[in-house]
Amino acid sequence: MNKVTCLICGTAMPGDWTEYPDYPFCSKRCRMIDLGRWLGESYRVAGPPSDDRSTAGEDGSSPDESR
Ligand SMILES: [Zn+2]
After folding, report:
1. Is residue 54 within 8 Å of residue 5, measured between CB atoms?
2. Nearest in space to 67 (alpha carbons), one of 47, 34, 41
3. Which residues, including other chains, have CB under 8 Å from residue 65's CB and lie 6 or more apart?
4. CA-CA distance, 3 to 61, in Å (whole number)?
5. φ, ψ for residue 45 (rounded to 5)?
6. Cα 59 to ligand 1 centre (Å)
7. Backbone CA torsion sign across 52, 21, 33, 1
8. Partners of 5 in beta bridges
9. What string of pLDDT tens digits covers the 67 residues of the chain?
10. Smaller CB count within 10 Å for the chain: N or C?
11. 18: number of CA atoms within 13 Å, CB side?
12. φ/ψ of residue 11, rounded to 5
């Protein structure tokens, strides 16, 4: 089964990935967020795209920090 999720917000992307012009992101918004991270990792362009707290880190400092 092909299970793909957005790299930014983790939103499930059912169906064929070719349906998503902004793959591997679910939307242009997430694409811009990723771009913003590359331009300035310490600078939050749009902030977290999702309000759910399922990805909140234990330390609560940087939920989206991957390293
Ligand atoms: Zn997304």
Report:
1. no
2. 41
3. 57
4. 29
5. -75, -55
6. 23
7. positive
8. 12
9. 568 899 999 999 998 888 899 999 999 999 999 998 888 765 555 566 666 666 555 666 666 766 6
10. N
11. 0
12. -65, 135
Q: How far is the CA of 7 from the centre of ligand 1 (A)?
A: 7
Residue 66 CA, ligand 1 centroid: distance in Å: 16
How far is it, in rounded angstroms, from Cα 67 to Cα 64?
9
Q: Which residues surround ligand 1, an ion (CB under 5 A)?
A: 6, 8-9, 11, 26, 30
Q: Tell me how far the alpha carbon of residue 35 lies from the centroid of ligand 1, in angstroms.
A: 13
- The residues with which 12 forms a beta bridge, in sequence order, are 5
